[in-house]
Hints:
The chain has 9 helices and 16 strands. The chain has helices at 28-41, 61-74, 91-94, 123-135, 147-159, 182-191, 207-217, 240-253, 261-267; strands at residues 4-5, 7-10, 45-48, 50-51, 57-58, 78-81, 104-108, 112-114, 117-119, 139-144, 167-172, 197-202, 220-223, 230-232, 235-236, 257-258.
Amino acid sequence: MSDGLHITAAINGAEITRAQTPALPITPDEVGLESLRCRDAGAAMIHLHGRRPDGSATQDAATFAAYFAAIRQHSDIIVQFSTGGAIGMSIEERIAALVLRPEMATLTTGTCNFGDDIFSNPLPAIRAIAAGLRANNIRPEIEVFDLGMLDTAIRLHREGVLDGDLHVDFVFGVAGAMDADEGHLRYLVSRLPAGWTWCVAGIGRHELVMARYALEWGGHVRVGLEDNIFIRKGQLAAGSYELVAEVARMAAETGRTPWSVAEARTHLGLPEVRYPHGL
């Protein structure tokens, strides 16, 4: 059981729109300020997708460079890029921003249904993304939407495609993938190799329910508008920072204390504060 708690704030995603919530940050200034608010509320890491000014999804390096720079104007929070992008993007599009060398980036280790679409991650694509992470000295966060994805991560680690003690994000509640179920989480955690760390992301109404399980069992938590736009039934969150603050409040009830950014960087094996590469 870990007393320390790592909170990730997934602040913008690729699917949520301003029509659904006016709190969605899109511009670099909005992303920079929201990241600071999340840090102040207890988050140690920001998970980012790219958005054009009109809100449409993009993974281009220029967009991520502007976000990265804006975040660094305000804080030293850990910056994690998505390599999932949006449904339908090519692998080349999804990894275009890795040249900026963020401290962490996601790596989804399998294909699954995603609502009416397919989130495609065949093994050659997984290996290509892993190679891009390694080439840029970026620590992966393994994204697991179904049990087989954890098995694949373990196999790739055994083969040397992935190395070190990995950090795994279990994602629950995506339509077509793994249900938000306490038993599923217990089984997944039981399968983790020694030394690996884990967090939970619940989609929609499952977000804070699954966060509670993670808090009680010594895991870590991801929350934010990418996954859930409500702070409670029928009430929009003022921003991802309000969801972070709610997790911090829940953590106090279970004897958990959110890590500072410096503590999270140490525990995750991230020794340096990174700035956009080449800027």
